[in-house]
Specification:
By secondary structure, the protein is α/β, with parallel strands linked by helices. It contains 14 helices and 13 strands. The longest helix is centred in the first third of the chain and has 16 residues.
């Protein structure tokens, strides 16, 4: 089979890694796969094509801020993408995350629908059934009809106008009569939301994201622990976010709040991500900086006793999968599909923003009052559930289905 994967990035970020893993597995198993992506450096590998230029991305972003219209520009990028589609002639197109100021999505949908190209559409956010928002948070306008958006200033930001009703109706119209499409969500949480949207009549499947469980596995951390001068009796929490403590959406402020609540305990919090220059940062926080090396990141996951996630909303967070694969259970806020990644006693979850209850759960675990799965059990669970090979098999069934 010939399968074309479309995503905003390739080989970087959670969706870029997922798409590249699918591309690798497809080619390894005798199929012909290609990737079209729009952001990042050019990748010189067979059938990997960057279809958008930086200037057009910047222009799209500026126009969106001025007009409030999103996913309506990028004429040349969209034209190049459709030209590649016509040349490659795929049996299946697997859309992933592609809306970051780099494509005219209505033009793309119309081309796929008019040419009856089988489409597997993987939703990594809510953007494709809302007027613009990647996460609807506490807003339910998308269940009826967007407009008068309470999050006009949030990404993708509009400085002046609210065209969310217009964009909502355009997306809805583009899906009318588009029968040769399967909607995929990594979490049941997102699937349930899709069933309340204008996509509810489409085929909807849940396929959990997969990771490289050979790279993310439990490893020896004695050398790393010694290099950080962490005493063997100290307990360690881990927080992973690309923007570190500065990322309010990922809950950086709650990590600082939690750190202050456990200052008198023999517990440290390691933060992987951009270092934040914050005055009066609690002394029990260690900022490591960004880590791009899989093996080193796996060591940090392995070294931690618990991985903490405090995001406002997540679909199916990759950091949870990577942590479990390295043998480390999860504690965090039960928002979005987060708790689905670590069911049973692979994780403990509390109401969003409740750092007092988060502190209590963590201390109860360290005191032995709450039992979580062992390192070995977490690692085995992740290998069984979240390997990229398992993800590939699930997608292959969808690609080959009638």
């Amino acid at each position: 089979m010939k399968i074309l994967l479309i995503n905003v990035v390739c080989k970087m970020g959670s969706t870029g890694k997922i798409v590249y893993d699918l591309y690798t597995e497809l080619n390894k198993n005798g199929h012909e796969a290609a990737i079209c992506y729009s952001r990042g450096s050019k990748i010189k590998e067979r059938n990997i094509f960057k279809f958008s230029s930086n200037w057009e991305v910047y222009l799209h972003a500026i126009l969106t801020r001025i007009t409030g219209l999103h996913g309506c520009y990028s004429y040349f990028a969209t034209k190049k993408l459709i030209k590649f589609i016509k040349k490659f002639q795929p049996d299946v197109i697997n859309l992933h995350q592609f809306y970051a100021y780099s494509i005219n999505e209505i033009t793309l949908f119309r081309h796929l629908k008019d040419n009856n190209i089988k489409t597997v559409f993987t939703l990594h956010s809510e953007q494709h059934y809302t007027g613009k928002c990647g996460n609807s948070l506490d807003c339910d306008r998308w269940m009826r009809e967007c407009g008068n958006c309470p999050y006009k200033k949030k990404w993708p930001k509009s400085c002046f106008f609210d065209f969310t009703k217009h964009m909502f109706l355009r997306k809805k119209e583009a899906m009318i009569g588009f029968e040769n499409i399967i909607i995929v969500t990594p979490s049941q949480w997102l699937a349930n939301k899709v069933k309340l949207s204008f996509l509810k009549d489409k085929k909807i499947k849940v396929v959990p994201n997969g990771i490289d469980v050979d790279a993310f596995c439990h490893s020896n951390v004695n050398k790393l622990r010694n290099s950080l001068k962490i005493h063997k009796d100290e307990k360690l929490l881990l927080f992973v976010s690309s923007d570190g403590l500065l990322d309010n959406y990922k809950g950086g402020r709650y990590i600082i709040e939690l750190a202050r609540k456990i200052e008198n305990e023999d517990i440290r919090i390691i933060v992987v991500g951009k270092k934040a220059n914050i005055t009066d940062l609690p002394m029990n926080i260690i900022q490591i900086g960004e880590i791009y090396d899989k093996d080193l990141l796996a060591q940090y996951y392995s070294m931690a006793d618990i991985m903490v996630i405090t995001s406002k909303c997540e679909n199916f967070p990759t950091v949870c999968l990577e942590s479990l694969a390295c043998g480390t259970p999860i504690v965090g806020f039960a928002e979005g599909g987060t708790a689905e990644t670590a069911p049973g006693y692979y994780g403990l979850f509390v109401r969003y923003g409740d750092t007092q209850m988060l502190r209590r759960k963590i201390l109860n675990y360290f005191n032995g009052d709450i039992k979580l799965k062992s390192k070995k059990e977490c690692e085995d669970f992740a290998k069984q559930k979240y390997s990229k090979e398992k993800m590939f098999k699930e997608y292959m069934r969808l690609y080959q289905s009638s």
